[in-house]
Specification:
It comes from Acyrthosiphon pisum (Pea aphid). The chain has 131 residues and is an alpha+beta fold. 24% of the residues lie in helices and 27% in strands. 21% of the residues are buried.
């Protein structure tokens, strides 16, 4: 188990990865950023794969808390090697609906009929990184 969060040995208030024993030797790097963000780099046959695991503030969180989270996510993303496959996983606490303005990034396959306000932060981040 690779974990980023509290240091109380309870593995709570954080994010992490459980890696199968046969894959542990492929782990090149694990970097805990905060209790809301960490990444794991795995050696691939052709390209490395980087997983960013994050847990975004909920819709009801203060705007500065949300700003801090997305600033941290952006800094993490920007420092990763460009010759890797990057996958973002976790709970981003976002509902993006089928609004036409978001279709370039989110397509039209969303399950949600109505977006929440966190969608702008996520869509802006994804669009700025050409995701």
């Amino acid at each position: 188990m690779f974990y980023s969060g509290t240091k109380n040995q309870k593995h709570e208030h954080g994010v992490g990865f459980i890696v199968k024993n046969s894959m542990v030797n492929s782990v090149k790097k694990i970097e805990p950023i905060s209790d809301k963000n960490c990444y794991l780099q795995i050696s691939g046959k052709i390209l490395d794969v980087v997983f960013i695991n994050c847990y975004a503030p909920t819709e009801s969180a203060e705007n500065n808390t949300k700003d801090d989270f997305y600033d941290s996510l952006e800094r993490t993303f920007d420092k990763l090697p460009r010759n890797c496959i990057t996958i973002i996983v976790g709970d981003l606490n976002v509902e993006v609906c089928r609004e036409e303005v978001f279709q370039r990034t989110a397509e039209k396959e969303s399950l949600h009929l109505e977006s929440n306000s966190n969608r702008i932060r996520l869509i802006s981040f994804a669009a700025s990184k050409d995701l």
